Amino acid sequence: MGGKKSIMRVPLRAVALLFFVSASLAGADRVGRASWYGPGFFGRTMASGQRYDRRRVFVAHKWLPFGARVKIMNLKNHHVLIAPVEDRGPYAGRCILDLSYAAAIRLGIVKAGVAHIAYEIMPRSDL
Question: 26-126 falls under which CATH superfamily?
């Protein structure tokens, strides 16, 4: 109450159907840039203790707890995914998230390397 919410309509493709989902960008949500892990990280141990597997969808965030899930939207192409936090970072540039290679593919940012994104922290009840 009292806070202004920003609502945007996000197109999603599901089994050749196009529909719209309302996505709030208020509260704990952030807007900024995201990059993805380069190929040299495959097999390395992440801050969570797990090994980096570029085929798995996950993100790195500086302070969110491991296992927290974030809903990420590429603001250019409106691709959306939900991914768990499994590492710390990003440490370079002005990015707010680092994405695994699989997450970057799903969001359509592999070629560009960096994208303007929005993310929201998923409530624990949605886990």
Answer: RlpA-like domain (2.40.40.10)
